Amino acid sequence: MSQTPRLRLALRTPLGIAAAAASTIIVLTAIFGPMLLGDTADRIDTDAIGRHSGTEHLFGTDALGRDIAARVVVATRLTLELTLFATLIAVVGGLILGVLPAVLGRRAGRLITATVNLLVAFPGLLFVLFLAVIFGVGTFSAAFAIGLGAAPSTARLVQNLTASIAGTDYVAAARILGVNRFRIIVRHILPNIAEPVALFVSTTAAGILVAFSGLSFLGLGVQPPDYDWGRLLNEQLDRVMVDPMSAVGPGAAIVLTGITFGLIGEVVAKANAGRTAPQPEIATAETSAMTPAEESASGLLHIDHLQVRFPGHTAVHDVCLTVDEGEAVGIVGESGSGKSLTALAAAGLVPHPGRVSSRTMRFGDRDLNKQAPKGTSMAMVFQDPMASLNPALTVGRQLAEVAEVHHNAGRAAAVSRAVSRLGAVGIINPELRVRKRPHEFSGGMRQRVMIAMGLMGEPRLIIADEPTTALDVTVQAQVLALLRDVRTESGAALLLISHDIAVVSQVCDRVVVMYAGRIVEELPVGDLADGVAHPYSAALIGAVPSMTTDRDTPLATIPGRPPEPGEQSVGCPFAPRCARATDRCRTEEPVLEQIRPGRRVACWDPITTATHELEEAR
Predict the structure, then answer these.
(1) pTM here?
(2) Which own/partner pairs from 294-300 qualify as long-range (CB within 8 Å, at least 24 positions apart)?
(3) What is the spatial distance between Cα 81 and Cα 613, in angstroms, rounded to a whole number?
(4) Using 50, 70 and 90 to split pLDDT, how confident is the model at 289?
(5) pLDDT score of 521
(6) Are 180 and 41 in a shared domain?
(7) CA-to-CA distance for 139 and 219, rounded, in angstroms?
(8) Other residues' Cβ atoms within 10 Å of the Cβ of residue 44
């Protein structure tokens, strides 16, 4: 969903409505307040000096008989102008200090970073007072001091965000191509950090408002005859014990406006919920031409030469995968094998600063290198449903949101569909359970809710990432049976990710085994009974005990450990743990070769059952 529709949806919530209403009131007051009440606020009335609050004067009058309420309204314009001016200084200064280390030399960059760290460590209020003394007493001097005082914290955020962008391949490529530093900042860095900086600024503005009002209260800010809310609060300090209402007006204006800035930040954050910031870049690999067979490759999901890179290492290496319409494919492997990242890349959910590249990545007729999966045609079931469900909302509300957003359904129709989907996944009394919150469901029930959420649309592909890991054996069997039923009834294809090859074999038609970010074997589930070819696949099967396993026999384990992220290796990544490894395995990495249609293996010395077939294929 684009930014504009998300913002519209956020503004329709109670929080959004409150933020919009408060902002409108403040802006209108700042524009029209001085026009309508300027004369009243400046009119001196010696007969009304020091009057208490009442029907004639809401907050009473000051020492010259001027109406305090009118002065609070008129002061809105100057207060907002100074607050926004100081915020602009903080943003500009923070952006300059934040991006310079990424484009300057190493020594200059370190000097700027160290300076920012020192300023952030210095108490903020003391720093602002120090600057205020240097620039002198006055309205814009105080605003300038507060803006500079807020710049270091903004710079720290920008530096952290910029560091992750500056290390990417596309920035390095721009430097190699001779792109000047200013263009790198404007084209490659600033657009990728705009959203989190905007969120930070919206909340920083509230702190700037309070800080500026504090300086005016101390007499270091706005000077007579001008006045802002802090100045008005100072003028009524002597009367606060006699007539507290005289100080309520300016004090309430400061508090409520600060809360409004916070509400604006919350609405912006809500509008960006579910969107990674910045989005991982998807680039199309152009290093080699596609073969005619690859160009005509069929399948609902077709991935060719997928790579997922993070700063310092590559997590997924040249993965080629196809899932046909209605087919169930399982991806198995130990933690860190790259199976989840492969699925996340297909769904466009690789977290920043991950960078996805592929020769081909197609879902249906949609090129995923150029466009994200459309609507609800691809559903995702995550490993931890409790972390995927909002604990503050009812289950029905969360399911209904899918139909409201993607199908423009009314609330009643969306809730009705949510009840139907909950019933379809075997939840008893869905009309009652739809009003419950996630903590009122068991682990297995929450996983059923996640599957129901995927079925709120009409998915052509369901990606289930370790959906049974946290469940006991009985509930695990129920969820697996449910996935089989859902696939049969809906006709959707299934991509099931698991570390347990036995689990995958119960549901899937085909198994893809991954190790160290690579596919090492692919075979139909029916061939598991005849024996796998890769030693790692055999080790995974051997590590799963069965009902006939001798209880006195120690559980089988795979010796050693998987390679760490970024760990450089020569030859086959599994060689250090493989009993069949030869000198060739330790020096030359095997390629994934087809033994026969539907079966591939990457091994120089496969297990005997497949050796003859592999030699014939070669």
Answers:
(1) 0.56
(2) 294/359, 294/360, 297/322, 297/360, 298/322, 298/324, 299/323, 299/324, 299/325, 300/324, 300/325, 300/327, 300/363, 300/364, 300/460, 300/461, 300/493
(3) 78
(4) very low
(5) 92
(6) yes
(7) 10
(8) 12
Q: How many domains does the chain have?
A: 3
Is 382 inside a domain boundary?
no
Residue 166 placed within a domain:
yes
Specify whether 431 is located in the same domain as 532.
no
Mean pLDDT over 331-352 rounds to 85
The domain containing residue 330 runs over which residues?
284-377+458-545+554-617
Assigned domain for 276 exists: no
Domain assignment present for residue 232? The answer is yes
Q: What is the average pLDDT across 565-572?
A: 80
Do residues 115 and 250 both lie within one domain?
yes
Tokens of 284: 């199309």
Per-residue pLDDT tens over the stretch 502-527: 788 888 999 999 998 899 999 998 88
In the prediction, which pLDDT does 331 show? 93
Q: Residue 282 has what pLDDT?
A: 41
Nearest residue to 196 via CA among 116, 298, 91:
91
Same domain, 348 and 448: no
Interval 480-490: pLDDT, tens: 888 888 888 87
pLDDT tens-digit map of 589-603: 998 888 888 789 999
CATH of the domain at 224: 1.10.3720.10
β-bridge mates for residue 184, sequence order: none
The neighbour count for residue 388, using CB atoms within 10 Å, is: 17
DSSP notation for 106-173: HHHHHHHHHHHHHHHHS-HHHHHHHHHHHH-SSHHHHHHHHHHHHHHHHHHHHHHHHHHHHTSHHHHH
**Tokens representing 190?**
């600033």
CA 478, distance to chain mean position in Å, is 32
Burial of 87 (0-12, 13-18, 19+ CB in 10 A): buried
Question: Scanning the structure block, which residue is given the tokens 């508090």?
Answer: 255
- Sequence-separated contacts (24+) of 281-284 with Cβ below 8 Å: 281/168, 281/170, 281/355, 281/356, 282/348, 282/356, 282/357, 282/361, 282/368, 282/369, 282/370, 283/170, 283/355, 283/356, 283/357, 283/369, 284/357, 284/358, 284/359, 284/369
